[in-house]
Amino acid sequence: TAQIESDPRLLRIVVRNLISNAAKFSKPDTDILIRMEVLPRETFIEVIDSGQGISPEDYRSIFELFERGGNASHVQGFGLGLSIVKQCLALLNGKLEIESEVNRGTKMRVLLPSMENAHGA
User: Fold this and answer.
1) Which are the contacts of 86, defined by CB distance < 8 A and separation ≥ 6?
2) What is the C-alpha separation between 109 and 55, in angstroms, rounded?
3) pTM value surpassing 0.70
4) Three-state DSSP state, 108
5) Of 16, 26, 59, 103, which sits most exposed with the smallest number of CB within 10 A?
6) Sheet of 42-49: strands edge to edge?
7) Looking at residues 37-52, what average pLDDT do you find?
8) Please, which pLDDT band fits residue 96 given cuts at 50, 70 and 90?
């Protein structure tokens, strides 16, 4: 069995921000899928929505403070969430992968390194 060692406060901030964004950018009656899997070398947490999506040209800027995607002007917020997620993941030695298609949805995948199981099981 693989395990992760993480700061629960930072991990909570990451997951809370990703779920909040998925809810903000999705239509009210759509589902948000949250998956987690612990593998021998890494653990991933996915937050998947069927919202408005992120255009490829916005990928870099959405991680900067006070920056938002070009199609986000109608949604309330300051553009802090993904910047905070990026900083937390840096402290956790993790990374964030994004798959998104405009008007189809977004998958945010957090990757965290797993530690070796002390019992070798």
Assistant:
1) 63, 96
2) 17
3) yes
4) strand
5) 103
6) 33-38, 42-49, 105-113, 95-101
7) 91
8) very high
Which residue, chain included where needed, has tokens 């929505």?
A: 49
Query: For residue 95, what are the CA distances in angstroms to 23, 35, 98, 112?
Result: 21, 16, 10, 7
Query: Residue 49 class from Cβ within 10 Å (0-12 exposed, 13-18 middle, 19+ buried)?
Result: buried
Cα 63 → chain centroid: 11
Structure tokens at 8: 């629960």
DSSP conformation class of 121: -
81 vs 103: CA distance, rounded Å: 21
62 contacts 106 by C-beta, under 8 angstroms:
no
Q: What's the rounded Cα separation, in Å, for the pair 64 and 48?
A: 22
Cα 76 to Cα 10, 24, 83, distances in angstroms:
23, 8, 16
Element (H, E) at 48: strand 42-49
The pLDDT tens digits for 77-90 are 546 789 999 999 99
pLDDT of residue 68: 58
Torsional class of 63: left (φ above 0), alpha (ψ -120 to 50), beta (otherwise): alpha
